[in-house]
Amino acid sequence: MIAISPSSAQPKWSTMSFASTLYLCPVLDLLLANIPKQLQPEIRLGLQEALVNAAKHGNKLDPSKTVVVQFSVTKEGYSWVISDQGSGFATEQVNRCNCDNDCDSHCDSHSNSHSLPDLPPEESESGRGLCILHQIFDQVHWNRQGTQLRLSKQIKKGKRQPLFN
User: Highest taxon of the source (predicted)?
Assistant: First the structure.
């Protein structure tokens, strides 16, 4: 079951919660409802990576644990705070990720095709998701416990092209 409620503490924010699952289509559809169509494919990919990490790695797909997503859509941009009930992880490395250097060989975000190449199996499970998050979102930050991820995408005056068409 998916539950959505407006936040009384932050009027521009809403909160969604759902049991840990990898069936994320309805969740993603709801989170993308107010996002412009041209940005939906890349934001969907980024949010899917983040939600899979929360449900699979954080909550270990335990259906008794929930993933909570706080989200906001404003004129300035889009923000998400994704929390899980897992034991967390050491966030020092991921919060200091130098994705522009580390991921150029994996994420071809500067070419006209904007495609993500297939990776060898040993690399696909570690690092690709982090790279994708840093390529799609303007801000990617985990809390110290490693149980909460903040993502934001700002709307810029000189609208940039989406990563993929």
Answer: Bacteria
